[in-house]
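Hi R.,

Here's the chain you asked about this morning:
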Amino acid sequence: MTFSLVARSADGRLYGVAVASRFLAAGALVPAAEALVGAVATQAHANLAYRAQALAMLRTGVSATDAVAGLVAADPGRDDRQLAVVGATGDGATWTGPRCHPWAGGQAGYGWAAQGNILTGPQVIDALRDAWLARDDLPFPQRMLAALTAGDAAGGDRRGRQSAAILVVQRHGGYAGTGDELVDLRVDDHDDPVAELRRLLGIHHMLFGRPDPATLRDLTGPLAAEVAELLAATGHPVGPAGLDDALAAWTGLENLEERFVPGRIDPVVLEHLRRCAGR
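And here is the predicted structure, written out as tokens:
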């Protein structure tokens, strides 16, 4: 009922799962990932225990291939299940039980595995694979979404669309560096869930993406004057504490605090400030 991708970044710092399905809230059941360890997708007649069990095996140095082999060998329901795993090194691995509804199957390669069942055909997995391999120019979450989008465009779940999700982990990559969930977004019930997931990821990037030091602009001269004017127009005039204090207060209210840098401004913040001020 689902197609998914599990993957590892080239530098081994990020792990993720992207999934779409004609199934309510597939993102609540299919994915699991742990920073510096690996990622797992369980689907078809999903065995939710696979998630914790696979990660525990990967944590001890078991390969993705051996983790999949061990889990399905011990599971009497394996013939109705799909499982994909990627670990810290080597190829990903996938299993498709012989009783999964057609079309069902999967592929795996270095640092990734893709799988699906009740699909319009094998071209869905081909498209997932090709987009994943071709779009290494994109940031990791956007690359995973590009692969999911390609699978969706190739036909996806033959029953239609309902849900989609993306989970990406990185050590200390979460909010304010206090967790490992870099991206954890779900569309549980939607007519076009992959497109909606793309919209949410764009918002997530704007709010929680880290500033690019190369693009930061110094808050001096005319730019400082413009920012002060824009803040006043949004009801946040610069007070005795200065421009940084006013800008920090405004970014906090706009949920852009992850992009605040004292004495400088992220172009993403500046663009949003201009929009809020009607400029």
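One quick note: The mean pLDDT is 97.

Cheers,
M.
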